[in-house]
Structures are given as C-alpha cells and as structure tokens.
Specification:
heterotrimer, A alpha/beta, B mainly alpha, C mainly alpha, B: two-stranded antiparallel sheet, 13 helices, C: mainly alpha, 15 helices, globular
Chain lengths: 502, 307, 355
C-alpha cells in the first residue's frame, strides 16, 4: 500500500519541556491508523504539527514522499490533510451547506451561489453515505450531525488523510456505531484516517494499525489483529494501575435529597430536567453517567444554587435549600468541584492564593480583611499534599497547567469541610498521577462519612468509584444500577436512551 | 410652528438621522467582525473637523468630503492597530479614541484656525441640496424625500450595499464567518486580521461621511464636541438593529425622528434643556427592549476552557 | 514567572505609553513650529515650577483622583461605569443646594453638603446599575447617556429655578455660598483645599478595600470571571450595588468638593468643560485600576493640564496639546506590549499537559 503521509524523527520542544520525542509515524492509503495515549501523552501536539498549527523542532514531515513545511492549516488542507477537531469548528448561525463549502464557495460572479452549494453538499453526503439536510442551521443540529458535517467539510476540501481528534467523546453509543461504520466505509473508498482516542474498544473495532504514545514517546506500533486491549493499556500507562479497594460501606443518613426537579427549556424545546429525584447518603458515592448535555450540568447548577428549578425541592443536610443563594447552600454543607475548571472553577487572571480563597472567605476573615498569612499557611499544606506544581502562591492561575489547576480546585473544595461534595468531571484532562490522587482522596472522604455525587462522562471513572450509578438521558434519570449489577454494556444502553433489561 | 407633525418634521428626520445611520453602519460592520466599536463618537468628530478643514484647504466641498473620509480612515487604523495587533481591550481603545479625537480636534482648531470653541467661515460652501426630478413634485413624499444633501441618499445606498455585501456575496460571507468564530475561520485559512482591518477601514470611511454631513450638510461650521453623543446613539442603533444594515436603518429612523421631534418641541416654549434631553432619554428607553447579556458571553469567551 | 519580572513587565506598560504620549505631543509641537524642549520645560514649570503651581496642580488633581478612584472600583468589579461626569455634576449641584438652603452652623452645613453630594452621585450611578441588573440595559452606554441627561438637567436647574438673580451678568449659576460653608484652604493664598486630603484618604481607603478586604476580594473575582464568582457564592446584584454606589459617591464627592472648595457655587458647565470626569477615567486606565496608581496618574494628568496652561502663557503652543498627550498615552496604555512575551510563556505551560 502506498504511504501518503510520513513523520520522520519528529521532536517538539516547548522551552525545556519535550512534548514529542523522535516520532516515526506513517499513514497508508485506505487505512485507519489509531493513535492512542493518555491525556498529555503528546497526541494533540503531534497532530497540530501535521496540520500546520505548530512547527516541529526537529525531524521531517513527508506527503507523498516529498518533504513539506506547513506554516498554517490552509497549507495542510491544500496537501490533502483535513482535521476534525475535538471541539467542533462550526459556525452555529450558518447552514450546514455554508459550513461545509466555506473556503471554497460556489460563486456566481462575486455572489455566493447558495443553491449550488446546497446541491453539492447533498450530493456529497449521499456519495459518502452521510446524508444531511444542507439548509439546516448548524446550531440546531444534534452533535452527531455536526460531526458528520465536519467530516463532510474536510472531504469537500479534498482531504485524503483525515485526522479525527477524540471524535466520540460527545456522541451517544448509537452515533458512535454510525460514525465508525461511516469511516470504515470511507476507508474502503480509499480515504485514510488518523483516529485519536483513548477508548480502546473503539480502537479495536475500527483501526487497522495502532500507535501508542506515552510521555511524548512512541511505546508501541502494531497491527490491530496482533494485539489486545490489555497490551495497549499497559503500553499507554507504562505500569499496572493500582486497584483501589472500594470496600463495602454501610451508608448513613441522607445528606442530599432532591425530589421531582423540573427545569424548563427554551420556548418549544424539551425540559432540561424532567422529574429528577435522587438522594445521596453519608458514606456513599453516587455516580451519574450520561453523554454530556443530557441535563447533568443543569442538575448540578440547581443543586448548587446557580439556577432556580421550576418545580421540585432540594434538601441538603436536613434543610430545604430549594432556590437558596449559592452562599447559603455552601454554608449548609456543600463543596463543589465544578465541571469546567476555567469557566466556573477559577479565575485565570487572579493569583493562586486568590483562587484558593474562594468559598473560604468567612474562615479567613479578620475584621473584614483577609487574613493572608493564615491562608498562605493552609494553602502551602494543600500544595504539598496534592503535589501542585506552581511557581509560588502569587503566580497567576493561568500559568498553571490544567492538571495542577484541577488539583488546586480539588484541594480547595476538599478543604471546605462540608459533608456533601459534588465532583463533576474531577479528572478531565489531568494526567494519570493526578487522577489517582484525586480518586484516592474521593474514596478517603467517602470512608470518612461524606456523601459524594460524582458526575463524569468517563464510564471507567464512574464504574471504579461509585456505589450506585444513575444514568441520565434527555433530562431524566433513565435508570439506576448498583455497583455490583452495573456493566459497561448496560450503562451504554441506558445512556443511549434504551430500556434497561433485567 | 404650532403643529407637531408635518412634512418638514419628516424631512428634517431624514437629514438628522443621516450621521447616526452612517456611523451605525460603521458600528455594524465592526460588530460583524467581532469588534465592539465604542470609538464611533470620536471617528465622527474627526470626520466633522476634517471636512471643514478639507473645505478650507481645498476650497471644494466634494474634495472636502473625500478628505474627511481619508482622514478618518487613517484615524481608524489606529483603532485597528491597537486593538488587533496590540491586543488591547476593544472598549478601552474605543474610549481612548474618543478622548484622542476630542483632544486632536480642539488642538487643531487652535493650531490651525486659531479659534476656541467653534470655527465658522461665512464664505464657506456647504453641501448642496439635491432636488430629485419627478419625485420632488409628488405631494407629501416629494417634500420629505427630495431636497437633501447627497450624503443623505448615500447613507441609504450604503445600507443597502452593505446588506447585499454581507448576505449575498462570498466575501461578505467570509467576513461574517471571521466574526462569528475567528478560531474556526483562521483554521480554514480565512485571513481574519485582514478582514478585521478592512471592516475598521470601512467603518472609518462611513464615519467620515457622517462627520461631513454634520459639519457641511446640516450646518457649515465646526464646534468642539459637536457630535454631542451621536456616536453613542449610533452604537445603540447598531445594537438595536442587531448589526443588520436594514435593522440599523430602522433603528436610526426611530432616533432621527426623536431628534427632529426634540428640535420641533423647542418651538413650544419648553426649556431647551428638556427638549435636548429627549433623544438621550429615548435612546435609553429603547435599550430596555434589547436585553444585553454580553458580559456573560464575553466572560465565557475569555474564561471558557476551549480557548 | 518570578515576581520581579512581572512587576517590571507591569511597569513597562505605562512607561512606554507615557513615552508615546510625549512623542505625540512633540510631533504636535513641531507642527506648530516651536521648540519641543522649551515647551516641555515650560510645561514642567507650569505644573511643578513653584509652590504656587504645585498646589494648583494638586487642586486640579483632586476631582480627577476622586472620580478616578470611583471608576477604578467599578472597573475592578467588571462594570464599565462611564458616568463619572454626570455623577459629579449632580453631586456638585446637590452640594450647592444643600450649602445654600440648609440652616445650621457652617461646618455642619459643609459636611452635610459633602454627604448629600455623595449620596446623590451614588444614587445616580446606582440607577444605571439597577437598569443593568434588572433590565439588562448595557451599563457602558446607559452611563454615557446619563451624562448628557444629568448635565442638561443641572443646566436647567441653574438657568431657571435656582438661577442667581442678584448678579448683573446673565450667567447660569446658583448664588454664591456663604463663606463659612466653604472647604478650608490648606495654605493661605493658595487654591489647594481640604478636598485634596479627602482624595488622598480615599485612595488609601479604596486600596485597602479592594486589595485586603473580603468584599473587595469578591469584587475583584466578579470582575475577573463572573462565572467563578457566582460559583463561589458572590452575589452580582449586591456587589453591583456596592460598587456602583461607591463609585458614584466618589464622583459626587468630587463634584461637591469642587463646588465647596473652588467654585463656591454651582456654575453651569464649570465641571463638564474641565473634563474632570473623563480625566478620572483616563487616570484609572493608566493605572490599570490600581487605587494608589490612579491617584498618582491623576496627579500626572493634572500636571499635564496645568503645565499646558503654563505652555500657553509662555509659548505659541495652545494648551490643548495636553489633551493630545493624555489621549495618546491612554490609548497605548491598554496595549499589550508584553503580549508576545506572555503568550510564548503561556503556550509552553499549557502544552505541558495539552487538553
């Protein structure tokens, strides 16, 4: 088979930090080449170089045997390389056809020929087995269709090699199946794919070849037929993961009890939360699984007081806190690791010290002023305990890496000394070490008698930590499983809106 | 003048709304590329001054308009450079630009004309008034539509042209793309910065025309701070019109009518201060119909994790 | 990044901006055909050349510092309060009315007049905050529009109901205040009045409030990231009341101080034509909303203005050269000259664990 694309001895350094070291990687015509690795292993950096968003420090990139130097993505596009980003790069107010043809619009003089654009797009979708309605607005389409649009866009641009960066993170299991089938079909027609993911069963299902990356170095490269999930995960992590014991616990009284919460959506759309009831007892971890966007964020906002429910009650630590202000709820017994650390969890421009103070204002108030020396003392303990890498407490939070910022936020919330903790995506985008640390701390708190509500889009995390698992689908609790009953298949089915089989 | 509504009220509405409309169109195209241009007020002020200066130097009213357009385009480059290249906060840049415009015009008024407060030359020619054949003879309509300075007609033409450009042409489509999602546009090889510069320059040209209409169309003089907040009113017109050129025409019509109305009211033995207040109060009232939650959107953009 | 580097980088900004401002002024002076060095020397002398000029500069700085502090506080909370001029005008008018019509001993009337000025300025500012919080009316624009409304209203009051009919001139102004309600002068024969002391005290108080108090912390976090603040239980509405009320009150105090300390009556246009409110905003921008920095920048801007008066007295260069310099330096102070440097650092750190 002909090699379309090749990376030879690529190294990328940022200052003294080596993101990629001596990478040899190639893509053949018509193959699906999976690139797997933990968060921070250097997959994204590698692809950014292929797509012209970064330039390698050393090494060569060859397209069709000729060396190329890309300085921006449009050059990569011209060489037949297309990329579907993890966060979609769509224009929500534009139609799907407009989103696909942008950059190569059909014209009548200086005018944009929208009819012909729509026709071309419809034809393109049919040819590749991914039909879409060209006149629909991108913002009104489900994520599966948006992704289809992204793939059609790179096909329209004439890509032969398509990079898919974590394409399944936001899709329902059904949509994932469709996607994998579609790319297999395209590969049969001669298109090549680089599939970046950390979900191993998808790799095993779709990929022809697999390259494993750890700490910027390739640790394995093999045909999919010659390997199995266990081997890949060993190559990814580099050691056996510690099995954390989730010893059976006797849950205590209810610390959180919410009843029949309803939250209306916009005009004419479905409710965001529909009759949601659940409770968390002391000494248990309740996991909420679900594809993101099925009401988890809204549920957390209602519990923490950031949003008012239209109906229903929230009882925390024995008191009714429905619709109470955030501060009152926190004082009543809530600590909260938020789902988006940059948007909700921190202020980039403020110092580490100021970021650590949030929620602890009363504790460090001395005659209306902030008692900074006590705060410093306490925060230095956090830095030690959680191995937070920061220049000093006066460094701006924006200079912390994602994992370190997440550890800072976790430390801050663990220190709130409250009996109930929301942990939303507590380990998203952090390295394995930080993940183990945060997981260990969560289990520790639970043993100490706190109630924890864990929301995560990572099934493995949910399965590892939870005593009970609730699955959310379209704003409802689609099902409840105990840790003993739960299997990945059952949860996946519920996540996709299927009925539970018992 | 004891009648509140008559033909001349609507006639003067068209005259008065022109600077607001032109500036608001400038604001609209800036907004379409993601730049909230608070500096409209200053751009118009520079336009008003340079139109008078051009007329003084060149002795031709058309060259004066051209001169104003060029001056304001140059001035607007400053806005583009500081906010696009030097990454300063757009709002702060806009505010400072207003300061600079006020400072420069008063300074030049002293340095060039050696007067304080206002410059007036009774021999200076203002913009002509065009009587439109046929239409001027139609009753009512003719009295409203005909007999304005050419810039009045230019303003409406600019609105239509801009609408066609933004929504019908490929280049306008890409401009909107650059404003809606600059990161995505950049990744497609769309030259976002160049487009932003272009939009700011167009905005400068429109504000130059707006200024020329103020100082050569409505009166033939320049007074310090003669824009008197019209740039800010134009900004509200941009917001109310949702940066759609035709919407901007509608909101400018509303504000122009209010302005004309307030001038008319001065004939009714009301204290001048109250009638002068009317346009500002009406603008403020109009903002109640436009819920502004941009601070949340801005904050989301600035803090969201997908940056 | 270590602290020294960051501090230096922080200072680089204003210093470069001031240089660009002075260069712009030099260009303007050259265009007129005067000597740059002589003109700047005259400017220095006009601002600081003698004790008299120095006190003049500080007098002018007083309202600039006060309004600047108010604006700084609002900016820190994320509110673009552009209404300093209007708040100042109404504060000054209210102080004049109190000073004229309140019975009682002079010192009490004076204190009451200052307080009433603060309250009125604060409420006017709060009105814009209320419209924003309750109806989503864009604060930046509403405060701008309210300036015109306030100035016109004050103009009406002194042209009709409160007009001084004793004097011969047809000026729009209130009658003169009794001398015992005037703010005391700090030095006899000099214009500097007790308002300057208030301004300095306010700068220190606002500094402590913003940087060391819990409420100030919450205001800063709100301005940095409203989502983070909401998550942490900071109430935007309550902080808006605090920030806008205080901000307007400081502007009101600036107006009251001018009326009681300098004009001794409310004269239409006296507060607006000197552009104290706008200079205050510039001072805030220059100092990136740091209270002590705002006070220093306020004195710098006042020095430019009084210096320019000296320039006009002694050279051909008109005093408006000051506006060119201040506006240019304000324009460039927000530019991120250190941007490229910062960006490179950030990229490296972020990619350490690319998400």
């Amino acid at each position: 088979m002909t090699v379309l694309l090749e990376m030879q001895g690529i190294t990328k350094k940022y200052g003294d930090f080596t993101a990629n070291h001596d990478i040899h990687f190639d893509v053949r015509k018509g193959e699906i080449h999976a690139l797997v690795g933990e968060n921070g292993a250097g997959k994204t950096t590698m692809m950014r170089m292929l797509y012209g968003m970064e330039q390698p420090t050393a090494g060569r990139i060859l397209v069709n045997g000729k060396e190329v130097h890309f300085h921006d993505p449009s050059q990569a596009i011209r060489h037949g390389i297309g990329m579907v980003h993890q966060h979609f790069m769509l224009f929500p107010s534009f139609t799907l056809a407009e989103n696909i043809v942008i950059g190569g619009e059909p014209k009548k003089g200086a005018f944009f020929d929208r009819q012909s654009a729509a026709d071309k797009v419809r034809e393109l979708g049919e040819r590749y087995g991914m039909p879409i309605d060209p006149w629909k607005k991108a913002g009104d389409c489900p994520l599966g269709i948006q992704q289809r649009t992204e793939i059609l866009k790179v096909l329209y641009q004439g890509a032969d090699v398509i990079i898919l960066d974590e394409p399944t993170g936001v899709l329902t299991p059904g949509e994932v199946k469709e996607l994998l089938a579609a790319i297999k079909g395209l590969a049969a027609q001669g298109k090549s794919f680089i599939l970046i993911t950390h979900k191993l069963h998808e790799v095993m299902e779709a990929a022809d070849r697999i390259t494993v990356l750890r700490d910027g170095v390739i640790t394995g490269q093999m045909a999919a037929n010659d390997t199995d999930e266990e081997q890949i995960s060993r190559l990814m992590v580099g050691r056996e993961l510690v099995q954390m014991s989730r010893a059976a616990r006797e849950p205590g009284e209810k610390v959180l009890d919410i009843q029949a919460i309803k939250l209306a959506g916009g005009k004419g759309s479905k409710p965001l939360l529909d009759d949601v009831s659940l409770s968390v007892r002391r000494g248990e971890i309740v996991g909420i699984a679900g594809i993101s966007g099925n009401g988890q964020s809204e549920l957390l906002q209602v519990i923490s007081g950031l949003r008012q429910p239209d109906r229903g009650t929230v009882e925390l630590n024995g008191a009714d806190v429905t619709g109470a202000p955030v501060r009152q709820i926190r004082e009543q017994g809530l600590a909260h690791i938020p789902e988006d650390r940059y948007l909700w969890g921190a202020s980039r421009d403020a110092t580490v010290l100021d970021n650590g103070l949030m929620g602890h204002q009363q504790r460090f108030r001395k005659r209306g002023l902030i008692d900074r020396s006590s705060l410093r003392k306490v925060m230095n303990e956090w830095v030690q305990r959680f191995a937070i890498k920061t220049g000093s407490l006066d460094t701006q939070a924006q200079f912390l890496s994602g994992g370190n910022l997440q550890k800072l936020i976790a430390a801050r919330e663990f220190a709130q000394q409250q009996p109930f903790l929301i942990a939303a995506e507590p380990t998203r985008g952090v390295d394995v070490g930080a993940m183990e640390l945060i997981h260990g701390e969560l289990l520790e708190r639970c043993r100490g008698g706190d109630g924890i509500l864990l929301v995560s889009s990572e099934l493995t995390e949910i399965l590892k930590l939870s005593d009970r698992i609730l699955v959310m689908y379209e704003g409802r609790i689609a099902g409840e499983l105990t840790a003993e009953q739960a299997t990945e298949e059952q949860i996946s089915l519920l996540m996709a809106g299927g009925k539970r089989q018992s | 003048m004891d009648q509140l509504f008559d033909i001349s009220l609507f006639n003067s509405t068209l005259r008065i709304l022109t600077p607001i409309l032109l500036a608001a169109l400038g604001g609209a195209i800036c907004a379409r590329v993601g730049l909230f241009n608070v500096g409209l007020e200053g751009l118009v002020l520079v336009g008003a001054f340079s139109a008078i200066l051009g007329n003084h130097l060149l002795g031709n009213v058309w060259l004066a308009v051209l001169f104003a357009v060029i001056c304001v385009m140059l001035f607007s480059l400053l806005f583009a450079y500081v906010s696009i290249n030097l990454r300063a906060n757009v709002i702060v840049v806009g505010i400072s630009l207003n300061f600079l415009a006020a400072g420069l015009t008063t300074f030049c008024l002293r340095a060039i004309f050696d007067v304080k407060g206002a410059y007036y030359d009774k021999n200076m020619q203002g913009l002509p008034r065009w009587d439109i054949p046929l239409i001027k003879d139609i009753p009512v309509l003719g009295g409203i539509v005909s007999g304005h300075s050419p810039l009045v007609y230019a303003a409406f033409a600019a609105a239509i042209l801009m609408w066609v450009y933004l929504f019908k042409t490929v280049s306008g489509f890409r401009l909107r793309a650059a404003g809606e999602n600059p990161v995505a546009a950049q990744s497609l090889g769309i030259p976002v910065r160049r487009i932003q510069y272009g939009a700011v320059l167009v905005s400068g040209a429109l504000c130059g025309l707006a200024g020329a209409q103020l100082s050569l169309g409505q009166v033939t003089m320049f007074t310090e701070g003669m824009t008197a907040g019209r740039g800010f009113i134009a900004l509200v017109a941009t917001m109310l019109g949702q940066s759609n050129p035709l919407g901007v025409v509608a909101s400018s019509l509303l504000f122009g009518l209010m302005d004309a109305f307030s001038i008319r009211l001065q004939g009714f033995a009301l204290p001048a201060q109250f009638t002068q207040m009317l346009p500002y109060i009406m603008t403020l009232a109009a903002m109640f119909f436009f819920k502004d939650r941009s601070y949340l959107k801005d904050a989301q953009r600035a803090n969201g994790s997908s940056r | 990044m270590n602290v020294i580097k960051r501090t230096l980088l922080g200072m680089l900004q204003p210093v470069v901006a001031v240089l660009i401002g002075l260069i712009a002024g030099a260009v303007a002076i050259l265009l007129i055909g005067d000597s740059v060095v002589d003109t700047y020397r005259e400017m220095w002398n006009g601002a600081f050349g003698s004790f008299y000029f120095l006190t003049n500069t500080l007098t002018r700085a007083t309202p600039i510092i006060l309004t600047g502090l108010g604006v700084a506080l609002a900016f820190r909370a994320g509110f673009f309060n552009m209404g300093a001029t209007g708040q100042m005008v109404l504060g000054g008018l209210a102080a004049a009315i109190t000073g004229l019509y309140m019975p009682g001993p002079g010192w009490l009337v004076m204190i009451m007049a200052l307080l009433v000025g603060m309250v009125v300025g604060g409420l006017w500012s709060l009105f814009a905050g209320y419209m924003d919080a309750r109806f989503g009316v864009n604060l930046l624009i509403s405060t701008l529009l309210l300036n015109y409304i306030a100035s016109l209203f004050a103009g009406y009051m002194v042209s009709f109901p409160l007009k001084d009919r004793t004097g011969s001139a047809a000026m729009s102004q209130t009658p003169m205040l009794e001398a015992d309600v005037w703010l005391p002068k700090l030095f006899s024969g000099m214009s500097l009045h007790a308002g300057f002391i208030l301004a300095v005290l306010a700068a220190v108080a606002i500094y402590i409030f913003i940087h060391h108090s819990v409420a100030g912390y919450e205001i800063r976090m709100l301005g940095n990231n409203p989502f983070f603040a909401a998550y942490g239980g900071v109430k935007r509405g309550r902080m808006m009341v605090v920030a806008m009320l205080t901000s307007g009150a400081l502007a009101g105090l600036a107006g009251a101080g001018e009326v009681l300390g300098t004009q001794h009556r409310y004269l239409d246009g006296a507060l607006t034509s000197a552009d104290y409110g706008w200079s205050g905003i510039m001072a805030t921008l220059l100092a990136s909303s740091h209270p002590i920095g705002t006070a220093v920048a306020g004195i710098l801007l006042a020095a430019l203005q009084t210096g320019a008066m000296g320039v006009e007295r002694n050279t051909n260069v008109p005093l408006e050269v000051a506006s060119v310099i201040q506006a240019t330096l304000t324009l460039f102070v927000s530019a991120r000259f250190g941007y490229l440097f910062l960006k490179r650092r950030k990229e490296r750190k972020n990619n350490g664990s690319a998400v």
